[in-house]
Amino acid sequence: MKACLLRSPARVETNPLDFTDMPDPVPQGDQVLVRVAACGVCRTDLHVVEGELPPRKSPVIPGHQVVGRIEKLGPKVSRLQVGDRVGIPWLHRTDGVCDYCRAGKENLCDNPTFTGYVVDGGYAEYTLAPEGFVYPIPEGLTDLHAAPLLCAGIIGFRSLRLSGIEAGGKLGIYGFGAAAHLAIQVARHWNVSVYAMTRDARHQKLALEMGAVWAGGTVDEPPAKLDAAVVFAPAGEIVPAALKALKKGGTVALGGIHMSPIPPLDYNLLYHERVLRSVANNTRQDGEDFLRLAVEIPIHTETEVFPLRDANRALNSLKNDAIRGAAVLKVEGE
Ligand SMILES: [Zn+2]
Ligand SMILES: [Zn+2]
Questions:
Q1: Is 0.70 surpassed by the pTM of this model?
Q2: What letters, b where the CB count within 10 A reaches 16 and e where it falls short, cover 96-119?
Q3: How far, in Å, from the CA of 223 to the mean position of ligand 2?
C-alpha cells in the first residue's frame, strides 16, 4: 500500500512525511482491516509530526480521523462485516479494566493506545482498528465530510459539554480551526451566542459567516462577559485572557492535547469560582452522541481536500492558519 510515513519527528517545513510503499497490514484478533477513503488532518498530527508529543512508535503513520470500508476481518471479529463503512478515531483502544474504564471514564484510561501515534493511523491506503472502537458512519455524510467529525467534531463536542454552556448562554471560542467551525454549529443549535477570538483575519471572517455574534483577535476582550469559553488554540497566553472574559462561576475548557506554557495567573482571574479545566480524549459515548447530533442538526463540514501524497503540504497549511474549516486527505482514488 501507499502510506505517508514519519521516520522521525521534524518541523513540517522540512516535509518530514515520506510518501512510500508499505506492506498491507493484516488484521489479527478483533481487528478489522479498513480501506481508507478519507483521513482528516488534525492539529494533534502536527504535534506528533513535529515531536511536541514524545514519539511512542517510530517510524509511524499519522492520522486519526479515518473513514473507510472494512475489507477484511480478524478471526475474532463478530459484530462488523466486510463492506461496512466505519470511522476510526484517536482513542484506538483502552484496557477496559482500569479504575477509569470501570467508572465510565475510558477517555482517561491508564493504558490507552492512540491511532496515528501509538499505532499506525490513516495517512495510508489501509489501516487496522479493533471492532469495538470504530463508529458506524451514518448515511448522509460523505467520506470527506465525515472524517473531520471523528476528532475535531467529537473533541469540540466534549469541550462544549465540559464548558457547561447552557442554552441561551454566551460562549467564547478561542482559535477558529477545524474543531471550532464544527463546535459553533452545535452551539448555535443550542441557541448559544458565540464570540470568536482568533488571530487570523480569514478565520474571524469564517466565524462571522457561521453565525458568531462577534469576532476579534486572540486576546481581545469580547464586548460581553462570557458564561463559558473553549480554547482550541494551543497558546498558553490565551488562558488569562479567557479567564478575564468570563463571568463569575464560569468555566474555561482547554480542548487541545498540547499547549505552550500558561503564564503566571493573577488569582483574581480565577477567584469567584471560575473553573479552568482540560479536555482529554473522548469516550465512545461522546462519539456516538455527537455523530447522531451531527446528522440531526445537520452539521456542515467546510473542507480543504488534499491528495494523500500531499500530506506534508496539508500540515504546512494547517500550521499557517491557511485552512478554511478542516483539512482532509482524499485517499481512495490516489
Ligand atoms: Zn482503562
Ligand atoms: Zn485529533
A1: yes
A2: eebebbeeeebbebeebbbbbbeb
A3: 31
